[in-house]
Amino acid sequence: MKKEFMLAPLCLLFALIAAPSRAFFFQDPPQSTANPKKEEADALLACGQAVFAGIRPIAATRDVRFEGKVSQANALCRGGYKAEQFRLTPWNDWGQYWGTGDMSSLPTGFLSTRGPEFRGVTGALVDLEFQRVELIKFNLFDNAGTYQDFVSGRSGVGGSALKVWPQMRLPATDPNYKVVGGDGTQTCKGDLVRGRTLNGECNDVKNPLMGSAGTPFARNVEFETAFPELGQTDLTRNRHGGRVGLLTPDPQVISRVLLTRNQSTPDTCKLGFGLPNNAVEANCDYQKAPFFNVLAAYWIQFMTHDWFSHMEEGHNAPQYIDVGCKVKLVNNVEVPLTPEDIQQLGCRPDDKVDDTYVLESSTPATFTANGKTYMARAAKTFSNNNTAWWDASQIYGFDDTSSKRVKRDPADTAKLLLQPLISTPNADPVTGGYLPVLQPTDPQQPQWAGQESVAFPDNFTIGLSFLHNLFVREHNSFVTEFRKQAQLTPNKDCGLRNPSDPKRVIHYKDITPDELFAAARLVVAAEIAKIHTIEWTPQLLYNEPLYKGMNANWNGLLGGGDPDVSKALSDIVTKNFGKSQDAEKASQWYSVFASGPGIFGLGSKADHYNITKADSINGGVNHFGSPFNFPEEFVSVYRLHPLVPDLIEYRDLTKDPNQIIEKVAVINTFEGHSTDAMHTGGMANWGLSLGRQRLGLLTLHNHPQFMQNILLPRLDSPTKQIDLAALDIIRDREHGVPRFNEFRRQYGLRQLTSYDDFMDKTIPADSPEHQQQQQAVNQLRQVYGTHVCDASKVITDAQVNEDKTPINDCLGHPNGSVVDNIEDVDTVVGYLAEFTRPHGFAISETQFVVFILNASRRLFSDRFFTSSFRPEFYTQMGVDWVSNNGPGPAQIEKNSPNGHTQPVSPLKRVLLRNIPELKAELDPVVNAFDPWARDRGQYYSLAWKPRPGAETDPAFK
Residue 8: its pLDDT value, please? Predict the structure, then answer.
């Protein structure tokens, strides 16, 4: 009874705040006023009206989704007049609520700021949960053959309640085919369930093939709307009018006109290659994010190397394709580029690149359900050649070839091999060691010669060298600590169990090197996932709702509250909703109630847990009716090249950390050069340099110049060069990513009706920012063009107009008008053009909504983050290590950053453990992805000013 009573506040909270978009309008909308007392009274009245209007239902069909837009009453209740007025824009409303920005988002002159702040932040969280629920309902499209069951259900079970699929069985050619059950019911057992397998099999013990290397990427958009250049439906043909193709509009022209970083002193940048001898006088201008550092830019590359790859061992298919620099639009007509155009743009018509591998391109089957015909898969599918799990495969390997580059220490095979530098032969074996270099006998491509030996060696840079060395040190730190404990208490139960002999207690002294290695891998992978979830992401999305939301994903909205309440909620989620055959309970309610205890550890505290039983091992996972793999659209929104500067501001910790002593061109730290740079500079100096420097904003005109002129000798082309900004566009087109406006509709976001909608309506029209945005809009119009619209052509069924009529080619403009080709804008260009963003967002709203769905799914689907987060798999020390961010009890951060009492962040502790020289530099740091010398100020400040002691740092001039 006590537990049921204590659950009531969570349910009441959702009931009172969750009325996101039911239509409800004031007869006479209040006007903006400087009178805070009147605004407060109007807001409170609106709250009552919003509650009276009731809770918005989850959309029954995809065309009437939430779209992130709330009723006028809700907007006024949660954010006052500013939020009410913002409803007229196409962007999500919650970013204008009280408390969702910096100090200026807190109301002044009110009787109380806590009430409005609570309504604003809580309202934002509710809006985000509504989006997640509807994304789970409408945006899961598996390419492996299960989609018909998802739509139609199977044997009386709703599609989103299905948990086992025949397509996820191991094939007869798999070495483990007989082990898991062969032709009968397949269930993983024994050694296959103890830890993460090399190729990702048996993460889900009832679906052994799921997420393993070589399985197809999924989709988050309807199959019919992917590959728009194919014109598969009347809607797609109407939408684009024959204007789009693999090279249309020209990707190199887009790159040079819309994405190039403009330079005030080109001679000191040299197209991103800097000056000789790393001269500090070098300068490459870039638009900087004040609240995110370069370490964060390399972190996401470190993550994507774990998550997905279309390539095989550093190369694509043998066929080569053109990459543009051929045509431009003049008066909406394509004309060839002249030699003068090519010289002015700086593009290269002779560039070529290897084509992408295609897994399946035959005509897809179709099926009929509920009176509608569906495609069973996309027109083309592609193989994810990494494991899809968050399993640190970039370190530990994902197939037999990559595993040969993973070197274990012959002196203790539970450890990974680290070697001291010649200059420091007596260095600590962990904190002074570096990864070995690839040997001629190791599997490698010619371009990798001289690199450090890692499982995923492609696109290697100094930032990846830093992070690989750091987490290999962390692996060994865990093993070292475990060995120390084994010496102290050799006969103590370490918690580990073998499913083949579950009753045998495994003492510290009994653990084998392979068992300890596997446990250390689990710990490192979980640490990486935790760092990304509660440290990288809340700094990427630097505001209160996302801090709370991401910590809720991991620890739950209850945080460190009553463990009995947390367990009770967890039991409701896993035992009731998780086992339900009702689609709504198994998906929508599962997602909502999981916000209480959090996703991480769901089902791990179940009563009568049995390591030999699939229902226990798998008990906390939920795939929401669609087998887990990353979707192509997720790959698209992680094209984040503007984050990287052209030059790294190198510093020396042993001298003056405030002094920039070199400007190192990033391109000069690629591949084998990364090893030389790392060994010369050392981990501490590179950590300092990457930690202090600001990364680039994700916006137009901010791609690194060196990336547009990168030399790739492996290419069989006349230039052996490639423009990576143009290549991003081509790869998205090859992979069938819809263009920007339909992409937004597919994800339940409001469409744009012209290029002008990109502009931020909250900034003054006479500001320099407004003028810059207007120039960008003019360039979009120049590159993508306009056309005379035809209102008889319906262009989408994913969304309708506010009056419920179909959306047509005129997008609300009169028939026959000249309208912008907003439908043709590439998604990667569109999200970079989003100048309107919530406070502290380093990414756009469009990128973020893809993240809402997939960030939670990769936790929900992985048993090692849910029901298998237990000592039987991790050891007790491993469970404690992940929970407390390292050995011993959790350490609490000084003061209360942004009003929160919080543990010292996981990456900060990883850095302190493994690079102890950084202690003085890291002591004042709260989040390791915030520039280390920045003063965080009060409540999510984005101000760029130095913390005490960093006043002389030239970065602050």
Answer: 33
Which pTM was predicted? 0.96
Beta-sheet strands, E only, within 263-348: 288-293, 320-322, 327-330, 333-336
- Residue 69 DSSP one-character state: -
DSSP 8-class letter at 268: G
For residues 646 and 701, give the distance between their C-alpha atoms in angstroms, rounded to a whole number: 13
Contact in structure between 706 and 271 (CB atoms under 8 Å): yes
State the Cα angle at 854 between 301 and 840, rounded to 5°. 65
DSSP class of residue 102? S
Rounded Cα–Cα distance for residues 619 and 632 (Å): 28
Residue with tokens 């068992």: 515
Mean pLDDT by 10 residues, the chain (957 residues): 32 40 34 75 95 91 95 97 94 97 94 92 96 96 98 95 97 97 97 97 98 98 97 97 97 98 97 97 97 98 97 94 96 96 97 96 96 96 98 98 98 97 86 95 96 97 98 98 98 97 96 98 98 97 96 81 74 84 88 88 92 96 97 97 98 96 97 96 97 98 97 93 97 98 98 98 93 97 98 98 96 98 98 97 97 95 97 98 96 93 96 97 97 97 97 95
Alpha-carbon 643 to chain mean position: 14
Selection from 704, 727, 795, 628 nearest residue 63 by Cα: 795
Contact present, 153 and 583 (Cβ < 8 Å): yes
The backbone region for 511, taken as left when phi is positive above 0, alpha when psi lies in -120 to 50, beta otherwise, is beta
Contact 7, 568 (CB under 8 A): yes
SS3 (DSSP) at 532: helix
Give strand pairing partners of 145: none
DSSP-assigned states of every residue in 789-849: --TT-B--SS-B-TTSPBPBTTTTSPTT-EEE-GGGS-HHHHHHT-----TTBSS-HHHHH
CB 396 within 8 Å of CB 521: yes
Q: Which helix (H) or strand (E) holds 708?
A: helix 705-708
* Distance from C-alpha of 417 to C-alpha of 643, rounded to nearest angstrom: 31
Which pair of structure tokens corresponds to residue 249? 């509009």
Cα 776 versus chain centre, distance: 26
DSSP H/E element including 554: helix 544-555
**Amino acid 11: pLDDT:** 38
Task: Report d(CA 29, CA 22) in Å as an integer.
Answer: 17
Task: Report how far residue 393's alpha carbon sits from residue 388's, in angstroms, rounded to the nearest whole number.
Answer: 9
**N- to C-terminal Cα distance for the chain?**
61
Q: Is the bond preceding 249 in cis, omega lying within 30 degrees of 0?
A: yes
Q: Which residues 6+ apart lie within 8 Å of 657 measured at CB? A: 651, 688, 692, 921, 933, 950, 953
With H, G, I as helix, E, B as strand and everything else as coil, classify residue 420: strand
Residue whose token pair is 């696109």 = 459
399 contacts 198 by C-beta, under 8 angstroms: yes
What is the DSSP-derived secondary structure letter of residue 141?
A: B
Whether residue 352 contacts residue 320, with contact meaning beta carbons closer than 8 Å, is answered with yes
904, 907, 913, 914 alpha-carbon torsion, rounded to 10°: -170
Q: Which of 347, 394, 506 is nearest to 872 (CA)?
A: 506
pLDDT at 580: 85
Whole-angstrom distance, CA of residue 894 vs CA of residue 807: 54
Q: What stretch of H or E contains 722?
A: strand 721-722
Task: Report whether 897 contacts 936 (CB < 8 A).
Answer: yes
Instruction: Read off the amino acid at residue 659.
Output: Q
pLDDT at 728: 97
- Asked if residue 671 lies in contact with residue 446, where contact means CB atoms within 8 angstroms, the answer is no
| Cβ neighbours around 802 below 10 Å, total | 10
Tell me the CB-side half-sphere exposure of residue 894, using CA atoms within 13 A: 5
| Per-residue pLDDT at 560 | 61
What length does the chain have?
Answer: 957
Predicted pLDDT at 561 = 61
